[in-house]
Amino acid sequence: MTTDSRGLSLDQAEDALLDAMRGSDVERLAELLFPELAFCLPDGAIISRDDDLEAHRTGTTRFTSITERSRSTIAHAGRGRTQSLVDVALIDHGTPIEATLRYERYWSVIDGRWQVIAGSASVAD
């Protein structure tokens, strides 16, 4: 099993990311997201790490519920991918949204810790 310098597996890092998203924990999110992150949203927009952190910091995006239905994880030699099916409820720019999303995240151990380097979210069929 591939772990980071703290002994965290990729699944544990993904769990930590979901917890940070649930609580809009900007400090923890900053640790888990690579500074040059590129993430594709369901509408096709590409956001950066700074965009995501600012949305959580200001409350522009606030998750009220994140429930993971399933997850697939592959990790080897300090790199990995997670794919998950997730039910989310959130407030985005004041609009309540409920959806089932497919998340795909690419991770790498950088500076001794798992960090998301790229990813996407799409609406599940």
Task: Give an overview of the whole structure.
The chain is of the alpha+beta class and 125 residues long. It has one domain: Nuclear Transport Factor 2, Chain: A (Roll), CATH 3.10.450.50. The chain has three helices and six strands; from the N terminus they run ααββαββββ. The chain has helices at 10-22, 26-32, 49-58; strands spanning 33-40, 46-48, 61-76, 79-92, 95-110, 113-123. The protein has a six-stranded mixed beta sheet. Helix 1 runs antiparallel to helix 2. The longest helix has 13 residues, at 10-22. The radius of gyration is 14 Å and the shape is globular.
- Stated plainly, the CATH topology is called Nuclear Transport Factor 2, Chain: A
Radius of gyration: 14 Å
What's the number of structural domains?
Answer: 1
Low-pLDDT windows of residues: none
* Helical residue percent band: 10-25%
SSE series: HHEEHEEEE
Largest sheet: 6 strands, mixed
Structural class: alpha+beta
What portion of the residues fall into strands of 2 or more residues? over 45%
Query: What is the typical, i.e. mean, pLDDT?
Result: 97
Strand runs, count? 6
* Distance between the first and last residues' Cα: 32 Å
Q: DSSP helix count? A: 3
Write the layout of secondary structure elements.
Layout: H1 10-22, H2 26-32, E1 33-40, E2 46-48, H3 49-58, E3 61-76, E4 79-92, E5 95-110, E6 113-123
Parallel strand pairs: 1-6
Antiparallel strand pairs: 1-2, 3-4, 4-5, 5-6
Helix pairs in contact: 1-2
